[in-house]
Amino acid sequence: MATAATVVVAVCSSPHVINIQNINCSRHYSYPARISAHNLVINNNRSFGSSASDLLIRRWKGAERTKKEQPNGVWALPRAKATVGTEDFIVEPATNVKFLTSLNVPGGSSSLSLAGTGFREKKIAIISVKVYAAGLYVDTTIKSYLAAWSGKLGSQIEQDNLFFNAVFEAPVEKSLQIVLVRDIDGETFWGALDEALSPRLKTTGAAEQKALDIFRETFRGKSLKRGTTIYLNWLKSSIMLVSISSDGSPSVADATIDSPAVAFALFDVYFGSHPVSPPLKKSVASGLASII
Q1: Angle of helix 260-271 relative to helix 278-289, nearest 10 degrees?
Q2: How far is it between the farthest Cα atoms of the chain?
Q3: Where are the strands (E) in 125-267, listed by range?
Q4: Residue ranges covered by each domain of the chain
Q5: How far apart are CA 81 and CA 91, in angstroms?
Q6: Would the pLDDT of 9 be above 90?
Q7: What is the DSSP letter of 45?
Q8: For the Chalcone isomerase domain, which residue ranges apply (predicted)?
Q9: pTM to 2 decimals?
Q10: pLDDT at res. 122
Q11: What is the pLDDT of residues 76-111, one digit of tens each?
């Protein structure tokens, strides 16, 4: 639960410093803020540039606004937001991967907005390592299909399977962006994905098997280096496009998965009852709750 606290901000000369290291500054200001588990926690030995501190203070001050106070169409993600040139992005804190707040995906017809971010861990021997960061993008018109949950908090809809089923079935484009944070070969990536995907398939007829074979072949023989971006784009509930790019900007789809069962099973991997990335599902629930 959020608690009242006094945040001490050291104001330095450079407007570009957002580095939580020990920086000696001569001026300090106290600012009352409400700090939750989702926000950065700062103490007396952490320093920020003046313009950066103003930005973070405004976000902390607004973090507890009710959904009615949120402007329509604006995602209220509890993450530090920064700007590079004219492009806004959200930083996934566990991996430091930057996700643009809006983008156009291969095969898509409109710009999509970031609903939430998270990361995937995989246990290797006895150690859990982060494999990739992920962010879900949706067409903001999705809110008209989620009106039944209007007024609900993210924590209330996070475990609501009907809500995420409605997200999947809404006839708007959705895209999961995956950014690798370690080198991995395509076969290993597919193996881990298939391990979670196959048990979720209710049927494995010829159509489903063909879709799985196409999916597998998309990754076969590929060396997926750190920074590789994978887009899983649901154009509608029955068709999904797969795009892979080593430079983070795929322009075409590498494969088309035409199977309602496989498309839903993959969505369920991330947003079902037992998601492979609980932080992603939690973040998306909060992001969607803020606009409905």
Answers
A1: 90
A2: 70
A3: 127-138, 174-180, 184-185, 223-224, 229-236, 239-245, 255-258
A4: 3-62, 71-289
A5: 7
A6: no
A7: T
A8: 96-289
A9: 0.71
A10: 82
A11: 444 444 434 346 999 999 999 999 999 998 888 889
pLDDT at 82 (0 to 100): 41
Per DSSP bridges, beta strands 174-180 and 184-185 are: unpaired
Phi, psi of 203, rounded to the nearest 5 degrees: -135, 150
CA–CA dist 251, 34 (Å, integer):
42
Structure tokens at 125: 């021997």
Contact 117, 133 (CB under 8 A): yes
Q: Residue 1 is encoded by which pair of tokens?
A: 């639960």
For residue 192 the two structure tokens come to 């881990």
Give the model's confidence band at 125: pLDDT under 50 very low, under 70 low, under 90 confident, else very high: low
* Sign of torsion over alpha carbons 243, 104, 248, 285: negative
Both structure tokens of 147: 């009106």
| Topology of the domain comprising 71-289 | Chalcone isomerase (3.50.70)
Residue 250 has pLDDT above 80, yes or no: no
